Amino acid sequence: MPSFKIETPSLSHLSHEDYINVYEPAEDSFLLLDALEDDLELLQQRRPVLCLEVGSGSGVVTTAIARTLGAEVFCLAIDINQAACSATNCTAKENGVKVDVINGDLVTPLRGVCAVDLLVFNPPYVPTPHCEVITSLEEPLTRAWAGGERGREVMDRLFPLLPEVLAPQGLFYMVAIENNDVPQIREVLSALGFQSHVVKQRRVRGEHLVVLRCQKHSDSLE
Ligand SMILES: C[S@@+](CC[C@H](N)C(=O)[O-])C[C@H]1O[C@@H](n2cnc3c(N)ncnc32)[C@H](O)[C@@H]1O
After folding, report:
1. Which atom of ligand 1 is nearest to the CA of 22?
2. SS3 call for 123
3. Most buried of 19, 72, 76, 140 (most Cβ within 10 A)?
4. Which residues form the Methyltransferase small domain (predicted)?
5. How far does residue 222's CA lie from ligand 1's centre (Å)?
6. Percent of the chain at pLDDT above 70?
7. Residue 168, SS3?
8. CA-proximal residue: ligand 1, atom 17 (nearest)
């Protein structure tokens, strides 16, 4: 019987010290999980072979996906922060699932190699000065939220890579906030050959969070 629930993995192995360098799951992480849970029937129907989370942080999202979709799905996580990669590894192990973790930038390690069936990204989306995005190598936590101009600098680098990495029937879920200019993000995605919809949204402490679901224009979903 298919299950239509996504359970939040245990994170009890991560301590306050871990969260000095790794993004602690917050409302954005849980909104993404809620959006995936709403779409679980669709995800299971698509029978994904390869799932990738970019920017896995603590591993909460990728571990939840791996637990829900089962061992026949190959789960991969990429994070630019080595401490986040270690945390993702631990979270997967502690919750009894296999996730392969790569320390790298966006989807670069996969370019030209793999077609991703389910791609998820909770990016650094907070508008900040440009210098915070590029000078924060020694401050891994800043890289978790600092999004540069309009909060778009990191996600905007991923969009042009989507046509190359997403499978023809692949689905891409991404968190954004209103300040990122969601209508303009959708225009960018459309120009790249993707239709997108806001599938979940929530106002949290003055921030309007959304989750976008994208698929190729040629992929008739609804
Ligand atoms: C907002 S946190 C999300 C963490 C986790 N996915 C969650 O939802 O709780 C963003 C994550 O993206 C990672 N990140 C930032 N820039 C990246 C890049 N260029 N490539 C890969 N990961 C990146 C950060 O290190 C951080 O772990």
Report:
1. 27
2. coil
3. 76
4. 43-126
5. 30
6. 95
7. strand
8. 80
Instruction: Say if residues 90 and 105 touch (Cβ distance below 8 Å).
Output: no
Helix axes 60-69, 27-38, angle to 10 degrees: 20
Ligand 1 atom with least separation from CA of 53: 6
Helices (H), ranges, 17-104: 18-21, 27-38, 40-45, 60-69, 82-94
**Given ligand 1 and candidates 22, 65, 80, which is best to mutate, with the most ligand atoms within 8 Å of its CB?**
80
pLDDT of 134 > 90? The answer is: no
Distance 115 CA to ligand 1 centre (A): 21
Sequence-separated (6 or more) residues with CB below 8 Å from residue 10: 94, 95
Domain 38-216 CATH assignment equals 3.40.50.150: yes
Would you place residue 138 in the very low, low, confident or very high pLDDT band (cuts 50, 70, 90)? Answer: confident
Q: What pLDDT shows up at residue 137?
A: 65
Q: What does the pLDDT average to over 101-114?
A: 89
